[in-house]
Amino acid sequence: MPPVSDGVRETLLDRIARRDRAGAVEAALAAVRDDALPVPELYDLLADVLAEMGASWSRGETEVWQEHYATAVIRTIVEACQPLVAQRAAPANGLTVVLATPPEEYHDLGLRMIADRFTLVGWTAHLLGANTPVGELSAAIAELDADAVVLSAYTHFHRMALRAYVDEMLVAHPAVRVWVGGAAFAREHEGWPDDMVLDVAAIPRLAETIV
Predict the structure, then answer these.
(1) For residues 59 and 78, what is the distance between their CA atoms, to the nearest angstrom?
(2) Does domain 90-209 have CATH number 3.20.20.70?
């Protein structure tokens, strides 16, 4: 028998293809509510669907609007999961993480899912979202008393720009732990230490690295 995630994935792709946003959302939520699929596994599945849609667009098989539609449906699913994430979150561990993308970077859906992954294991997660100037990030870190920051880049260009952004932020907040991720780090991360590149599977253990 195939894994539950395979069935949910096929259902989501079918609903998206038929432009059935409500059906896609309900299929995803039902799997989580019934404990057939934990939220992190659902988010792995959603990330795979996003990657598949992006690859299909790159091959010229999918129109831009179709990719945007699928992304919008998946964002709706993630937002609809918020009450379930809150219900299933571990007790607070006293740590706070802020999540953002630098200026000119507008892909933040992956960060939205990562914020929930931190919440589920006891962190207080604050998502600032896309296109965040470094001064605004610095102000948020100070006001929210953040222990860590997660930053995302989608392209090689944005990854290169992220280096200076991180360096500037660390001048003001040298004790803050920084993790980076996103599509730009999926294949390689030359110039970035291994322990700075976020592995989502390791999120449940990251509290142990904060000193």
Answers:
(1) 27
(2) no
Enumerate the CATH 1.10.1240.10 domain ranges in the chain, comma separated: 4-87
Q: Is the pLDDT reported for residue 35 higher than 80?
A: yes
pTM over 0.85: yes
Residue 32's closest CA among 75, 1, 71, 78?
78
- What is the per-residue pLDDT across 82-122, written as a single tens digit (0 to 9) for each? 999 999 999 999 999 999 999 999 989 999 999 999 999 99
Nearest to 116 by CA among 94, 138, 87: 87
Taking Cα atoms as reference points, which of 107, 106, 161 lies closest to residue 134? Answer: 161
Q: What is the residue-wise DSSP string for 18-45? A: TT-HHHHHHHHHHHHHTTSS-HHHHHHH
**Strand, helix or coil for residue 98:** strand
Burial per residue of 103-133, b for 16 or more beta-carbon CB atoms within 10 angstroms, e otherwise: eebebbbbbbbbbbbbbbbebbbbbbebebe
- Interatomic CA distance for residues 65 and 179, integer angstroms: 32
Architecture of domain 4-87: Orthogonal Bundle (1.10)
Q: Which among 114, 102, 105 is positioned nearest to 166, based on CA atoms?
A: 102
List, by residue range, all CATH 3.40.50.280 domains of the chain: 90-209
Please say if the pLDDT value at position 1 is more than 50. Answer: no
Distance CA 164, CA 177 (A): 16
Which residue in 45, 35, 44, 38 sits closest to 12, CA to CA?
45
Q: Rounded distance, CA 110 to CA 129, Å?
A: 10
